[in-house]
Structures are given as C-alpha cells and as structure tokens.
Design goal:
9 strands, 2 domains, Rossmann fold, 254 residues, 32% helix, alpha/beta, two-stranded parallel sheet
Length: 254
C-alpha cells in the first residue's frame, strides 16, 4: 500500500474535470492504495475567463452563475475525494511544503499539460516543485489539449522535470510522439472515467426520469445540431441541450 498524491484539475466546474479527478482517485483506492488530492487552487472562481473570451463564446449570462458552479465543484471534490493535501495557490507554496520522498506522485488526466489552461502554474503540473530525490513520479492520461505548436510546448513546459518521471501515459497519440521526439518515453491510454465500472455511488436515491433527448454539446457544430433536430422529429421527444458545465439548478444532486 502506498500514498499516491494526485495533482490534477479537480475543481474546474465542468463534468469532465470533476469526474476525471473522481475516477482517478477511486481507481487508485480500488487498487489498494491511499489517494490524496494535492489541493491546488487555480483561482478560476475569481478570474475564470477574459472579457473578450466570454463575449466571443456568448457566455456572459452563464458567467453570472459561475461562482456558484465553482462552489458545487469544490463541494463535490471534498465530499467524494476527502483525502486532500494543503490549500495551495502558487508554485512557491508547493515548493515550501515538506513532501515525503517515499510517496508516489501522480499527474492526473485532463488538460494538465495545456499551458493555455494551467498558465502560470504550468510547470507545477510537471512536478517542478519536487526535489530531485523524489523518484516516484508518474502521469496518467495527461493531455496537451489543443496546443499543437510543438515549440510552444517545449518552451512553456518543464521538459527537464518531465524527464524525471518513471512512467508517462497521455491521452493523445500526438502527445506520445512529441514526448518520444524529446527523449521521453510515453504510451497512449484511455481517460480514467472509463476505468470505473459504475458511478452508482454518485446517484441520488431517487432519479428523475425524463422523456427527452439529452444533447451534450462540447463543440456546437451545425452537423450535430441538425442530427439532434432530426432525432427529435423522428422520436417526438424534446431536446435538452447541455454544454458540459455544472448547472446551478442541479445543486440539490451534488
């Protein structure tokens, strides 16, 4: 049995981020180890997006409920991933913490190696804050997101710190190729959300049944909208569109 300290994006208020952190935590637990979430606060609740970004994506109305959604994500994390270390906000705070060199350290999935998301904390997600005598460094299903610019990845990530990892598994094939071109071995794996057989523990005692089509839209394309509308006409069922982010009206189920 080992202590496994997980660093991932665990409080971003969308279902993907919340569930990947939960799934990785539970998988480590199911393997007989003791998982801990390294509680790094990325301050999304205060500075979620630039004004330009919000306007471009038409999120200005949605942003009014963002703080509440962030609180839901944080509450979910504390409830379902109760073992958490610290309350960190900066790389300097992480560096000053007395990390146990005998523990295992795991960079979790999600877009942890996308500097556009991790920004000034990007090197922390390479475990740059750990001393060199910490040998048990791993990554599971780490993602570079949409950062296809190889030179940007090399310049903004701590490649030296990544070279100290014992094993690295990433979500994308191009991520494997990028790391191998830079002398770092890696393999491609599935997202941790697909490692669990059941999510029944997260369901409320009574599940509301709805005769409708749930349209989870992560990339709102004309083709997807046309397909959903066609399915609605064919089945006679209404469409409920969802963009993947936690919704304030769902708080009673969290």
């Amino acid at each position: 049995m080992h202590n496994v300290n997980i660093l991932t994006i665990h409080k971003e208020p969308n279902y993907g981020a919340v569930l990947q952190a939960y799934a990785l935590y539970k998988t480590i637990e199911n393997l007989g180890h003791v998982p801990y979430i390294i509680n790094l606060d990325m301050d999304y609740s205060r500075f979620p997006y630039s004004l330009k970004y919000r306007v471009l994506l038409g999120l200005h109305k949605w942003m009014k409920g963002y703080s509440h959604c962030f609180a839901l994500a944080e509450r979910f994390s504390k409830k379902h991933c109760p073992n958490q270390i610290g309350n960190f906000h900066t790389t300097a705070e992480l560096e000053s913490y007395p990390w146990n060199k005998g523990d295992y350290y795991l960079i979790g999935s999600d877009q942890v190696w996308n500097p556009g998301i991790t920004q000034n904390l990007r090197t922390a997600f390479c475990f740059s804050f750990l001393k060199n005598d910490v040998k048990n460094r791993y990554a599971y299903a780490a993602s570079f997101g949409n950062i296809k610019d190889e030179e940007r990845r090399k310049s903004e990530l701590d490649m030296k710190a990544l070279s100290l990892f014992k094993r690295i598994a990433v979500r994308e094939k191009f991520g494997v190729e990028f790391l191998r071109r830079n002398g770092i071995d890696a393999v491609e794996v599935i997202d941790p959300t697909l490692l669990l057989e059941s999510y029944r523990d997260l369901l409320p005692h009574k599940v509301e049944e709805r005769n409708e089509i749930l349209f989870l839209s992560l990339s709102d394309t004309a083709e997807m909208n046309a397909f959903a509308k066609g399915l609605s006409v064919k089945t006679g069922l209404p469409i409920r569109k969802h963009y993947g982010y936690l919704q304030p009206e769902r708080k009673k189920n969290m």
